[in-house]
From TrEMBL:
Name listed for the protein in its UniProt record: Uncharacterized protein
Residue ranges constituting the Radical SAM core domain according to the UniProt record: 302-529
Domain annotation B12-binding: ranges: 114-254
Keywords of this entry: Iron, Iron-sulfur, Metal-binding, S-adenosyl-L-methionine
Pfam families xrefs: B12-binding (PF02310)
PANTHER family the UniProt entry points to: ANAEROBIC MAGNESIUM-PROTOPORPHYRIN IX MONOMETHYL ESTER CYCLASE-RELATED, SLR0320 PROTEIN
GO cellular component: cytosol
Molecular function in Gene Ontology: 4 iron, 4 sulfur cluster binding; catalytic activity; cobalamin binding; metal ion binding
UniProt cofactor(s): [4Fe-4S] cluster
PROSITE patterns, A to Z: B12_BINDING (PS51332), RADICAL_SAM (PS51918)
Length: 660
């Protein structure tokens, strides 16, 4: 039996006073606000409430006017949670016409209502663990909710779908909240839809960056996924608490609440086919969010093979159209206090178990003034705990002097580099990207390479960005290879939901040609509620445009494989060092190999052909076709074992290694 009323407390401007707004939702009658205090409390006089509240001690005034109950304490502020429980207990007994002793009224509310809220940042596990990091985003949401709502709900965090499935079977939640990224959308949605099938009263909430920004596209997204009751956008902490309070006031009757069409901050939902959008607002001070580490929420994950994840800043000042954080709403960078960061690092170091890596979630680590303090804090725990030996972080896109200084502090643990993406100014303009100059980039690589023999560097290049061509991509690769980085990370341009590059305007302007494919490793098979759940995560990539044919795209992929084979991992370091000493270009040597197939052995040529065939075979015209190619395949089990569905670049690099 649930509480008949929800009492929402708000602190008065006068010290020692708290006002309680009482809301009630009657099944089948929609959401109503009871205005009369006497009616809310039943037929008995209000002084019954005063008597019980006085028994709590420390209270000298209780008054009821309209729907506001005012309680004034003699000293410190009243215990809000206790007062809420007393009012709810009292009303429950009035409603049922039962007598109750003081102890019953003043005790824990007589309710067996389901107050469990499960939050999942799920990863596919069909072919190994796809996302090897702590569930940081959902843990922030849970930490803030616990701070604001106390013990009114039982919050639990999940990373693995198997554990979530078991918990939902033994202790079903009232609310299931799942994060949505490009790599786990199908897993999160299929699991929630199946859960909703078995328990139609379950409230399903999604959150995360994989969501449109245009109203019509939001409407389509939610219509295509009817199991999602609410979508919390951008920073989810405040919006999720607002949503829980409104649902609680409606006794978790989703249909009744949606009929009110009441906006929820940072949240979208459908009401009778109409999109109700609560607008977007960022958190003014991220330090209002408790640390999920220091509050113990993350403790269970230290026993798992996952990398602790640290966030020291939120936001990104850059406007890259291919990135979700390139949107204006992310432009202001906000930082967590360094004292908190230091405490979190020590907390992690004391508990980490067999994992050498620390992942930093910041978008531009190393370029901000506070990053050096973070690096020094990391160096401190390295000295004491010999952890972390590897720091994984996205390098800041400018202020290379500060980046170099930060790299030096971390004793070779941070593999720093430059996310160039393209060296062509027109391509960079098309994606609203600004890079450091060629000279500054060379200085950055030289400085990091000079830090010692163990220093590692990388550069990132994306194939197929708007306006890219074969010649421009080759120039970008030359730019990276001849700068003497240890690795060149080569990616294909992916259209992420909610980015400017994903817009129809950009597609039309540059004549983008796209295909759909399985995300490498994005598969899984799970037992849930007595049913088998097969999952394939699909992404959309650019394979051509007005400036690049599909054949040129394949030619670029061939060059990517040659660089992956001969440059990355140092197979030919001594040869390349000798060439550079003589003033020769390593990239030009690879370009010769690219042009002259007659230089290859038969086995080497066969593997190159297989690589290009594999690139073509993985591509489909629609998301549905790509998904069916995996889930409808009689060899689906081979995707789970890793025989199929791998990263073709790395797979064929290994084959070429064996030939050499």
């Amino acid at each position: 039996m649930g509480r008949a009323v929800t009492v929402v407390a708000s602190t008065s401007s006068r010290p020692g006073i708290v006002r309680f707004e009482i809301n009630r939702c009657l099944t089948g009658m929609g959401h109503e606000r009871y205005q009369a205090g006497d009616e809310i409390l039943g037929k008995r006089p209000v002084d019954d409430l005063a008597r019980y509240l006085f028994d709590l001690g420390g209270i000298d005034f209780v008054g009821v006017f309209s729907n506001v109950i005012t309680v004034q304490s003699t000293g410190e502020a009243p215990d809000v949670d206790r007062i809420v429980d007393v009012i709810a207990n009292l009303h429950l007994h009035y409603r049922e016409g039962t007598e109750a002793s003081n102890n019953e009224i003043l005790s824990v509310p007589p309710t067996t209502a389901n107050r469990r809220v499960y939050l999942g940042d799920l990863t596919n596990t069909g072919n190994g663990i796809m996302a090897l990091t702590f569930p940081l985003g959902t843990s922030y949401v849970a930490a803030y909710a616990k701070q604001e709502l106390g013990d009114r709900f039982d919050f639990r965090l999940f990373k693995f779908p198997e554990a979530l499935g078991q918990a939902m079977k033994s202790d079903p939640p009232k609310v299931l909240a799942l994060s949505n990224y490009s790599w786990n959308l199908e897993l999160s949605y299929k699991l929630s839809a199946l859960a909703k099938k078995h328990d139609p009263s379950l409230v399903v909430v999604f959150g995360g960056p994989n969501f449109p920004v245009i109203s019509d596209e939001k409407l389509t997204f939610l219509k295509q996924r009817p199991a999602v009751d609410f979508y919390v956008e951008l920073e989810g902490e405040v919006g999720f608490v607002d949503l829980l309070l409104k649902l609680e006031a409606s006794e978790f009757d989703v249909d009744a609440f949606k009929q009110t069409k009441e906006p929820v901050g940072n949240c979208s939902y459908l009401s009778g086919g109409e999109l109700i959008d609560g607008g977007i607002e960022r958190i003014a001070d991220v330090n209002m969010i408790p640390s999920p580490y220091l509050t113990g929420l993350m403790d269970e994950f230290f026993e798992l093979p996952l990398s602790p994840m640290l966030e020291t800043t939120r936001g990104c000042p850059f406007t890259c159209t291919f990135c979700v954080e390139g949107r204006p709403t992310y432009s202001r960078v906000k930082s967590f206090h360094i004292d908190r960061v230091q405490e979190e690092l020590r907390y992690m170091a004391e508990r980490v178990n067999g994992v050498n890596e620390l992942t930093i979630a910041d978008s531009n680590f190393g370029m901000n003034k506070w990053d050096l303090a973070t690096a020094e804090a990391i160096a401190g725990v390295q000295s004491e705990f010999q952890w972390p030996t590897l720091v994984n972080a996205s390098t800041g896109k400018n202020r290379q002097e500060r980046v170099i200084e930060t790299v030096a502090v971390l004793n070779g643990a941070w593999v720093a580099g430059s996310a160039v993406q393209s060296s062509d100014s027109d391509v960079l303009d098309n994606v609203k990207r600004s890079n450091i100059s060629l000279d500054a980039y060379s200085d950055l690589m030289d400085s990091m390479n000079s830090l010692g023999k163990d220093a590692l560097t990388y550069s990132e290049i994306i194939l197929g960005l708007p306006g890219d061509s074969k010649d421009k991509h080759f120039d970008s690769l030359r730019y990276a290879v001849d700068s003497q980085v240890n690795r060149v990370h080569m990616y294909e341009a992916t259209l992420l939901t909610g980015t400017d590059m994903d817009s129809q305007e950009t597609r039309d302007k540059f004549g983008l040609v796209t295909k759909f494919r399985l995300i490498p490793g994005g598969v899984g098979s799970y037992d849930f509620a007595g049913e088998k759940l097969h999952v394939a995560e699909i992404e959309e990539i650019i394979v051509g445009s007005d400036s690049m044919t599909f054949e040129e795209y394949l030619s670029c992929r061939k060059m990517n494989l040659l660089i992956e084979t001969f440059v990355n991992n140092g197979l030919c370091d001594e040869v390349f060092a000798a060439m550079r000493t003589m003033g020769l270009s390593v990239f030009e040597l690879l370009a010769v190999l690219h042009r002259h197939d007659e230089l290859y052995s038969e086995k080497f040529q066969n593997n190159l052909t297989r690589f290009l065939d594999a690139n073509c075979a993985k591509l489909f015209d629609s998301r549905e076709e790509a998904e069916e190619s995996v889930l409808g395949c009689e060899n689906f089990d081979r995707y789970l074992t890793g025989d199929l569905g791998n990263n073709e670049l790395l797979e064929h690099k290994a084959r070429l290694y064996s030939d050499l």
